[in-house]
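Final report, results section. Input specification for complex C-07:
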Amino acid sequence: MHGYFWFVGKRLLQLLAVIFCGISATFFITHLSPIDPVEQVLGRLSARSNLSPEAIAATRAALTEMYGTGQPILTQYLNFWTRLLRGDLGPSLLAFPTPSMELVTRAMPWTLGLLVTSTLFTFVIGNLLGALAGYHPENRFFQAFGLIAMGVQPIPYYIVAFILLIIFGFLWPVLPISGGFAMDVRPAMSWQFIFSILQHSILPALSLVLVGFGGWFLGMRALVSNVVNEDYVTYAGLAGVKKQTIVGGYVIRNALVPQLTALAMALGGVFSGTVITEQVFNYPGIGSLLIDGVNYGDYSLVLAVSTVSITAVALAIFIVDLLHPLLDPRVRTE
Amino acid sequence: MFSVFRDLIRYNIEFAIGLILVGAVVIFAVLSYFSPVDPSLIYMAMPDQPPSGQYWFGTNSRGQDLFWQLSAAFRNSLIFGITVAVLSRIISITVGLLSGYVGGWVDRVLMFINDIFVAVPIFPILVLFYFVLRNNMDSFTLALIMACFGWPFDARLIRSVALGLKHREFTRHAVFAGMSTPKILLEEHLPYVMPIVFSTFMANMLWSIGLEVTLAVLGFTNLNNPTIGTVLYWAISHSAIVVGVWWWIVIPVVLIVMTFLGLFLLAVSMNEYIDPRSRLRRMGA
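Structure output:
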């Protein structure tokens, strides 16, 4: 038990370091650049409407106060942290008086729902099939499966999502290709609404599953085909241990340890995949918010999305890491 | 070196296929140096012409000959991928060998930094860079930023090999013979990690080109510079499929799939070759 606490403490320290460094990076990237957010917003405002010089000066003063860009950079940095800890990153310009954090929290459930289900599904199915394929290398079905996985796996997210869009949007239009739910359904806890959400999430989720699946399948197959030849597996087989016990308890369990590490490492990439998927299928999640924010020049919204997503990915990695000792008892007793 | 290459082609069908695919794409990309037109200019040809004898890949709605356009795009993307791969390989070799050989607190500090870099999601960071730099972000800046994030996983792999090399006889001999640490790392240990470096080189190129496509398709790079991503960006912003200019989408997608599949097969087969158990199984020994 002592070892487990050590392990959790070390990971916790690392989690805090990651969040601190990531958020500091977002601050310094945005604040050390020569581009002033105040001037950018002013440029956008004056391009669309005819403002008097007095109004521009007043707006500039108000914006400078709002962004706090007049102060030295260290003061700004400290202010940024105090505001962030209160969950306040200023109003969004995209939907003006709404705080940008509120926009992010509104979009978060969509992204989380899509991401968690598709990642879990991909991980479980990919590893299970990969393990079976590694255990039965002569099976024709799994061999064909491996070829397909190898062909699909390296294709970037965007291309897969786009091909799905063409197939189900133009060639065989059976599934909704855009939005989070149908326009004519009222968001409420009704079966109709839930059904609409599920129906709309099929294609985005499918694109994520298709891209992610191959990696787990191929990785697990390679791992299992090496573990199968280990002495302890041969010995267990000779000793008459049941085949299910060997596959589940000896082979898969041992091969799953590196796969869990790989899952923690892949999460950042999975997040960037979701951004694309949301953009392609016009899904109302945090990725679409990020893209809108960048296109509109919405400073506080972009900052809010990046800080939240860095924190979320770091937390997810932390949770996956905590699962490690369940599989690998050495971590517990170390 | 040459015999390794010969073995790979003879015993590893994946390697041979990957080599052919990547070779074809590289030749296609090199052709751009003989291009009769400047790929950044628009309205140089009749727009929306289907593939024909004159325009092999057709022309797009911006009046560009797609053959030369794509050729330049693949050249730029491949150069971009190689730049990122070389830069991040330098970082990962330095960090990996140093932390594996020196050990102690150097190892702990380097691996702590390493773990932070693994966990920070790069995509929001890249978008932030685009957000503040806008069109000042050229492909070398982008390559530099990506290289800063593309090394940690491979550094860990190299470190694990270096840890094993540290206690081998020849390292001790080198130390007693008075070799300096940098010299031991470069002359004694580097050759052992070269296979990993090659295999991760391909994987890294896949990663960086894929990320560039992603950014460009969203419009988050310099759109006047032809790359794989910007070709797709323009095709989508002109609604090529809806208008019926299918070749503007289909031909790049086919070429992209060829490139990615080829690089992936090269990376996977080299990776398999590194592990002597799977190598021997394949050779039937």
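The first helix of chain B runs from residue 2 to 11. Chain B has a mean pLDDT of 85. This concludes the modelling results for the funded period.
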